[in-house]
Structure prediction request, 239 residues.
Amino acid sequence: MDLPGYVALTRASGLLKEMQSVANNIANVSTTGYRREGVVFAEMVQALPAEGGSVAMTAARGRFTDELQGALVETGGTLDLAIEGEGFFTVMTPAGERLTRAGAFTRNADGEVVDPAGNRLLDEGGGPIVIPFEARHVGVASDGTLSVNGEPAAKIGLVTVEDRTKLTREGGTLFSADGAVPLFDGRIVQGFLEQSNVNPVAEMARMIEVQRAYEYGQKLSDGEDERIRLVVRTLGARP
Prediction:
């Protein structure tokens, strides 16, 4: 493959990853606590033997998460919780502790507070939160204190990640992080859920842009292929 072919290939590869990111955002436009994902591109420029000449190639080097908070929608659910401002809930998954903004919790058969996937919500000490089924009233204060029948029973643990480069998306609304620390001034709102922060109109517009860019790159590849074929035919026709 010649140089223009490699340039077109890196362009197509990067646009493919961008399209996958956009499609994932659109698919999660209604997912509680989902945060929009984007792709970070890097450009590599190398000098050519010709004076003043250079070639640039691109690569999708990483992904970033949009930190913009989604809208808080009132549901009235006792265990529907939203974080206003910074912070994450901590849940225990089969792979270990993970962070999430999705606060649609329920109780399992043991009375433990869990997310839709069955992952247990953890308190500030890293233990599960249990609510007896005979509880008549369950309240959650803004500081995360959970009370049962008017008596404090647990305190929901909120954490933050000061170095966002250590926050890694693991799919959906779950994140893993090195260096998560307790968040003491976080605010929890009971009876609300944070919606996805994806703007569907903006994502659809971006999808069209990526598609057009890919088509342009394909035309470049087709034109280069035709040029090479023409050179081969011309040279082959010479006596």
